[in-house]
Specification:
The radius of gyration is 15 Å and the shape is flat. The chain has a two-stranded antiparallel ribbon. The chain has one domain. By secondary structure, it is mostly helical. The relative contact order is 0.18. Helices cover 35% and strands 4% of the residues.
Length: 103
């Protein structure tokens, strides 16, 4: 795979299912390999992914790979406007596409 396993939902605008529906959140690499019926399965390491960019890890939100979010996460979204409001507020923590040091 060309990325580390995705174990967390994105709350910042990427349409991903909740983490319970992400296969890597609930299953080991071996279990995923067996499920998809391949001889081998390897993921890119998080360090390798970041190193490939030439930028420091602090410039990225890596929550989908680590489960650690740069801002507080609401426990429940009730409507699409709740999601939009949260994304708008979260986007204020970004500066020119890079994480602001104030986060």
């Amino acid at each position: 795979m060309s990325s580390p396993p995705i174990i967390g939902s994105c709350h910042y605008g990427i349409d991903t299912p909740n983490r319970e529906r992400l296969i890597a959140y609930k299953h080991s690499v071996e279990e995923v390999r067996e499920y998809i019926g391949v001889d081998s399965l390897a993921y890119q390491t998080l360090g390798g992914l970041v190193d490939a960019t030439g930028l420091p890890a602090s410039d990225f939100c890596l929550a989908c790979f680590t489960g650690t979010y740069p801002t507080a996460q609401p426990s429940d979204f009730k409507t699409r406007s709740d999601v939009r409001r949260h994304v708008d507020i979260s986007a204020q923590a970004y500066d020119g596409g890079r994480m602001s040091s104030s986060v």
